[in-house]
User: Which sequence fits this backbone?
DNA sequence: TGCACTTGTTACTCTGAGGTAACACGTATG
DNA sequence: CATACGTGTTACCTCAGAGTAACAAGTGCA
């Protein structure tokens, strides 16, 4: 519900009805709407980070890691469009608290990417580009998900990794 | 106000107060809060699109266009952080209508980028990568703006254009 | 001076939705 | 059978905030 209609577009009654219960039941498990939303963000975000971390850890060499990392990302998206929309969709409205939660996720993804970037540039420059590559995957995914198109993560991962890897080899201070 | 606190985090009283008037005055100019918000999105978005279009039109050759395009983007961001946050910040909550408005902007930016991509790939693949590059610039900017860091658009544009251009030369079907 | 018009303000209505109090129903336990 | 408890529901309270009605105050024109 949150993924598709946003935080403010989803009432606790909506959530309760979708869960097949009534509102007070929700409040037995979560202190507030915000609390429920945060739990959801954390859950979904951690799944993404875990997938990426595992994928890059299990690959040898920068190029392999790049491909596996993007592959894991796009598999995560393809596997659960709603999860992507919840974190990165345009409906995801955020207050102070959830903004931090999302920032933690993107920063985590960037941290996984940063080491892949040529070492002959400054740390700050590298972090900046790392966040750019996270945005690259996000931009690609948003278009496909919001248009409702299905896609092959294998193909997409390869295509985007090609661009990213070649780009990363070219950067310098 | 909308850029910093989001649509739902900003009341019409807030807007009115910031404008030095009272609420009914706003309703003499705009039919509804939504109407005001949409006018703002359109205004700001068109400024971005115009800047990019002009920049790429005035450049000769793909590489030049790439650099000038990203430069224009980052100049727009550096010049008005709030404008960026309004369209792409994490606080930007969006209903159906504003989502379309934003999509029009990103699609417009992608359209300006798409022709730069090597022609030996399918049109769909090209559009996908174009949206990815828009996301690239967005990801880079979001980090810098939300961290409140100031930056030099000239340097940043060059760095990102280097990555993008090298990446674009490497893509194939 | 007096009337119409523009432009603003104060003070109100009303609805959506978050959150809660009180109550009903099924099930283990003495 | 009766009591206590867990788990759910209905029905309510409350309040922020969008939108409006009624009213004040300055300004051009006869």
Assistant:
């Amino acid at each position: 519900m949150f993924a598709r209609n946003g935080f403010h577009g989803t009432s606790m009654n909506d959530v309760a009805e979708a869960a097949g219960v009534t509102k007070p039941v929700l409040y037995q498990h979560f202190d507030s709407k915000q609390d429920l939303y945060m739990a959801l963000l954390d859950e979904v975000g951690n799944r993404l980070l875990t997938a990426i971390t595992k994928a890059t850890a299990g690959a040898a060499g920068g190029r392999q890691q790049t491909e596996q990392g993007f592959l894991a990302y796009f598999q995560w998206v393809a596997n659960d469009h709603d999860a992507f929309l919840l974190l990165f969709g345009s409906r995801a409205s955020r207050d102070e608290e959830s903004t931090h939660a999302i920032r933690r996720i993107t920063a985590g993804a960037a941290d996984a990417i940063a080491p892949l970037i040529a070492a002959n540039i400054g740390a700050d420059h590298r972090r900046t580009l790392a966040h750019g590559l996270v945005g690259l995957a996000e931009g690609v995914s948003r278009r496909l998900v919001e248009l409702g198109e299905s896609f092959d993560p294998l193909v997409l991962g390869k295509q985007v990794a090609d661009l990213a890897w070649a780009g990363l080899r070219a950067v310098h201070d």
User: Anything to note?
Assistant: Chain B touches chain A through 47 residues (CB under 8 Å). Chain B has nine helices and no strands. Residues 21-25, 28 of chain B lie near DNA strand C (CB under 10 Å from a C1'). The first helix of chain B runs from residue 2 to 5.
